[in-house]
Amino acid sequence: MDKSVSENGVLQEKSMFDIVFHMNKENTTNWNILYGIHYGNHMVDSLTDTVYFSDLLPERCPTMYQSLDKILKENDIDHRLLSHTKAIWCRDYMPIQTSEKRFVFYKYNPDYLQTKYYQRTITDVNRIGNIDCLRQDGKVFDLDLVIDGGNVVRCDDKIVMTEKVFYENKDKSRNEVQRLLEEAFECDIIFLPWDRKEIFGHSDGIVHYAGDNRVLMTNYADFDAVKANQFQKRLEKYVEVIPLMYNVKRKHKRSWAYINFLQIGNLVLVPQLGIPEDEQALQQIMDAMPRCKVIGVPALEAVRKGGALNCISWNVATTQWNSGFMGEEYRVHGRPVSWIKKAAEKGYRNWQCNLGCCLFYGHGVEKDIVAANQWYKKSAEQGCDKAQFNIGLSYYKGEGVEKDYSKAMYWFTKASEQGDAEAQLHIGRCLEETNASNEDIVAAYRKSAEMGNAEAMCFLGEWYQYGEKGLTVDIQESFRWWKKAAEIGHYQAQYKIGDCYDFGKAVTEDKKEALKWYKRSASKDYIPAVYVLGLCYHYGNGIRKNKREALKYFRRAANNEYAAAVCMIGEYYYYGYIVDEDEEEAIKYFKRAAELGCKRAAEILSRILPKNEESHFDNLPF
Predict the structure, then answer these.
(1) Staple partner for 164: which of 80, 122, 194, 231, CB 3.0–4.6 Å?
(2) What is the CA radius of gyration of the chain?
(3) How confident is the model at residue 523 (pLDDT cuts 50, 70, 90)?
């Protein structure tokens, strides 16, 4: 953001809109650099400067997310994660920004998510981050229609949608649906035919705005020439159409994904699929948007799930009004705390909570836990569940206030009543600290688990495994709770499930299934799982033996001081597994493993040290 000094000497920041207006008025050359930015009715992608992703994305598409994170950092693009999401496709459920301060909210209840299994993936947008800041401060339009954000492509003074919207709102006439859409988006709507073979009916899988009243259209003609012709005829009434085409021997079924690229400002990120069309797609988008920086991003992880880069993102233009909203709870992301403070002083409960977080952790301001708790309490008293949890945690730990389990329980209960599963978990912890009955403790943890808290699920699994807290040993019930936690990404539970399949605990032994869960856990850097994955490759447990791959995992675990992994590396050098046999190097690893507490390493040393004129190994921890 650009900075200026006001008459009273206070440093102020200009929004993207202020900058663009200034450039347009006084410097035509600089204005033209921002290719595709126009002052139509709408917030087009080239005006955006911040992008959000679901907090599930790093886990479900780790390779793609790492690439996105690296590229966005290198290009100084502010990016954040949305909390309380239930699917990675945040484009579909997030409100649509139509101008600097105006957002359209809508009903997100698509027909393809109506089975019991899929309904649990429908995100309640009102639970996300600080979303109610938009409602408190913004110009919000509540659209009384069922739509998907992926079926809205912004094109300056027009919106492109498919006719799927009419089928999802059969309780209203076609004319009424069109009227409501035009009222919400304040523009004309270009309706494309809905291809029934594509159940989602999203327009962002067909077209993407390229600026200057031009749209890029996907290579539909390669798969359905009749439908492609219908699309093009409809579009050409309003905009110039540039079809994407690929000169390859065999058309790949996933080549539709290139149109689903992500643009933030003048940065364009294009899905890369590892097929011949990759380079051709990049070149065609570069040609259509010559003043943009076009970069390819490996996106197969998302494309295999049915979407691409536009689907998994929500890009907006931040302003002085909304810059603090929806950032990670305890970070300011380079935004001035002064803005958050002003909003907090006006009484906005979520920003009071955010200011408390900044003060508690010293982000952007001097750390002041006492002041943080004061802001938490103000916010909590207005009903903010996050602040209720935070002030409860302060009383639970005695941070900035005198430790008081009774007051902690009071605020945790308030937050739990609003659906905060972690607050409910801490009610259980308070009960443990105050020596409550096992029955009450288990009931508190069980309620947290039933609310979706994975940590509580893991505790229940442990207690059933060992018969703790008054529970009867029940490995089947233990497995059930671990499986629930594992399926929502808890790395320790994933390791436990792998162990169950590996040794046939509560389930039929299945080495391949065990390997799958070990891999999931190891991908989150849970070091025991990393080590066990090394063992799987070493012994061929659920997979073909591969000592080279095994050594990679052992080194990764050893770098985290995991004693058994250090010992295994010693064995690799001692026996010459895929490395040159080197007894001296092996002994170094055995000694280090023994120092870390590995009995096996100590036993090996007791056998081999005499060969090296060593009579004993002192200072073992046994």
Answers:
(1) 194
(2) 28
(3) confident
User: In the structure, what pLDDT confidence band is assigned to residue 621 with cuts at 50, 70 and 90?
Assistant: very low
Phi, psi of 236 (to 5 degrees): -65, -15
What is the C-alpha separation between 265 and 49, in angstroms, rounded?
Answer: 6
- Do the Cβ atoms of 536 and 543 come closer than 8 Å? yes
CB contact burial 233-260 (16+ within 10 A = b; e otherwise): ebbeeebebbebebeeeeebebbbbbbb
Give the phi and the psi of residue 305 in degrees, each rounded to 5: -90, -5
Distance in angstroms (rounded) separating the CA atoms of residues 305 and 59: 14
Could you give the CA distance from residue 483 to residue 433 in angstroms, rounded to a whole number?
28
- Tokens 């859409």 correspond to 181
**Nearest by Cα to 79 from 244, 345, 314:** 314
- Give 464-497 pLDDT, tens digit per residue: 999 999 999 999 999 999 999 998 878 899 999 9
* DSSP three-state, residue 378: helix
466 vs 461: CA distance, rounded Å? 9
pLDDT band for position 241 (50/70/90)? very high
Q: Helix, strand, or coil here: 509?
A: coil
pLDDT interval class at 39 (50, 70, 90): very low
Scanning 186-332, the segments in alpha helix (DSSP H) are 225-236, 277-288, 300-303
Main-chain dihedrals φ then ψ at residue 330, nearest 5 degrees: -110, 20
Please provide the DSSP assignment of 275-289 as one string: STHHHHHHHHHHHHS
pLDDT category of residue 138 using cuts at 50, 70 and 90: low
β-pair type (139-146, 102-107): parallel
* pLDDT tens digits, 313-346: 999 887 533 444 444 333 344 446 777 888 889 8
Which run of H or of E encompasses 13?
strand 11-13
First and final C-alpha spacing in the chain:
60
